[in-house]
Amino acid sequence: MIKKDLKILAIASILGGVLNLLAIIGEVHWYKIFCFLLMGIFPLALGLLSLKSEDAKRIRSLAWVSLLSGLSILIMATSDFYRADNMPFINYLSAAVLIISSVYGLYQTVRVHNLDIVP
Amino acid sequence: MEDQNLQVQNSDQTGDYVTRVIPQDKRKSGLNLFNTTAGWIICLSTMFTGGTLVAHMSFKNTLLAGIIGMAILTIYGAPMAGIGSKLGVSTTMIARHTFGKAGAVVFGLINALLNGIGWFAFQAAFFGLTMSELFPQTFLANPVVGSVLGGILMTLTAMFGYKGISILSFIAVPLIIVLSLFGGIAGVESSGGWANLLSHNTSDNSMTLFQGITAVVGNAALGAVILSDITRYGKKPLTGAISAAGGYMVGGVFCILAGAAMSIGAIIPSIGTTPNLPKVMLAIGLGLGALVVLVLAQWTTNTANVYSGSLSVGAFVPLKQTWVVLILGTVGTLLAAFNVYALFIPFLNILGTTLPPIAGVILADYYFITRFVKKEDYHYGEGSKYAVVNWLAFAITIMSALIASQLKFFTPSVNSIVIAFVSYSILALLLDKFKVSYHVGSAGENAAGY
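YS: structure for the whole thing
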């Protein structure tokens, strides 16, 4: 169960991270590129690192990183300043993937793996 | 049978281990403590302190004042936090040994009134005022509405105890930092870049570095005194001390810097004329971000304030923790509705001079007299013995506050804590040597921890 949950979360994190990085394509403003890069790189990196893990606590870590990245991406996407010029929908898609997967991850952390919701 | 007795001893009748030592398996990670303490210090009033400083001194001195001020707070905050993690009890419970069982009630009442009600009311009113500035065309235009809504939110989280606060902080602290960072970048970009921004010198240089440090220390002095209320959930004393001090330092310096940066940004006509971070963010098109920063910053701080106040009251009033939080939160919210903003400056002055000596006395009594000289430790649980009152602790606290308020150098907060620590250590040592007891009466602890 741990491996299955981790795989689901890791793939969702990688997907969410990559989607946010895709928003960089065609972008000219350095601050938007910086924002998309920073917000996408954390879930992507942790997702990749978690693919082989078998530790239930990693589910919690991944869920928290996904949740915080997803919420940040969503809030940025609603602003005039950080909205992607070419593909604004992609920020929302990335945020949705990350937030939904994180809710699943946190639920499994508490209900199935009997861990505290925060470490 | 022994196990059953142990279970009864550890039974937590009030919830959230208000009068109990927190079992090791219930303690939290260093990251948890770091986040929760950072959430406590990150608030708009700390950001505003940064904005005020940069209006009266250079950006470099503002940064220095922030770092030195917060470092000073951690000098006494870290050992206080360490005691919390070592003993697993709240500050008021620690004060039972230092000030006596009745003496701790006095400390608890002071903390509940200042922190749980007074500071809570101030922050809730501040929340309402800022909301009304940000959203003048909505129902939030009336500050009373924002104050009451904020007060309800802040009270509700604290009703879930430490768990509620730590979950909130886990969401809030990273979000506030990320959003403020991008808010800052947006502000710089909107004003034409760093060079343009820094070429605007708005400082009137009317404030010295020491005055800046005093303002920083005064703003967060009380929080550092009662860090044990958070770190009692720490697994080890060193972890608790480092995590809490780190969270307080990082959160505080971040807030001061963010406030100062936004204040400089605010002089650019395209942005506005306020050192109010959410207002600047709103002006440059980060509407939702502004709302999130405002709500979360005030929420985390104030929920911890009312929580700390409730721990103080709960240490001597046998009521469920949730009820104590509800009562304090309701009183604070009602006071907030009457707007206590005008009390800001006197309030800081009181905090800066009267509360740190309490920490000085606790530190001297625990680390020097009890651990170093007597080679003993504070103990809790059924049958534990306390003095009713430690008159020396009270005398030193009052004397230190009075002397520090008259001194004309450095900051009263630091002066008073040093005076209290040194004078208590010397006098207690001498009185012990000459067999003069400064503890009056004897009181025990019952099965419920009272």
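YS: worth flagging: The helical segments of chain A are 2-22, 30-50, 56-77, 88-111.
IM: good catch. Also Chain A touches chain B through 20 residues (CB under 8 Å).
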